[in-house]
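Predict structure. Chain length: 203.
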Amino acid sequence: MDRITQDYKNNQGDITVICDRVIEKMVNNPNFPDPPSALEDLQNILPEFRQALADAMSRDKHLVAVKNKKKENVLALLQELADYVTVTCKGDRTWMLSSGFDVNSENGSSNKQPPSIKKLEVEAKQPGVAITRIRHVTNAIAFVHQYTTEPPGVHTIWTSEGSSLGSYTFEGLHSDKRHWFRVVAIGYHGQRGYSPIVSWVIQ
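Prediction complete.
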């Protein structure tokens, strides 16, 4: 299977290198016409992170703490972008490499079965908020959490959020209105598995 590597997390120098490359490759890239706001946020915070790295070389505890906080924010933005690329590219190696991220191949993935989701849990205890959650899904490399406010059919338009996690929190939903939820598991070579659809009236 082809998937984005995250070796850069182990070396602060590598973080800035991968940031530069991802920004260069993804900005105005027709392969990624609708990137998340994390791309612009990364462009804005990267100079601050570079300065924080330089300042922290003095080993001043406060400056080291500032650097660590900036690093945490940068890694979170990179993860969001990696999730977006993974979901968008559906395992296509060439497409993934065009994002600037490094990609690893895992032998034997061609025989993997499509992902299967047997159960979807929906938690909606707060007004306008719903959490979708799936567990124990094998052969999945990413997930797309979805909802719609109309009874699902062939032509239903779903609101979708890509993630590397089996859970997602939707906010700003319409209160006192029924919503339908599902999760799509993206597997090896673009294989897909769909969860059962669960409906819920949001508080």
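Summary: The first strand starts at residue 2 and ends at 4.
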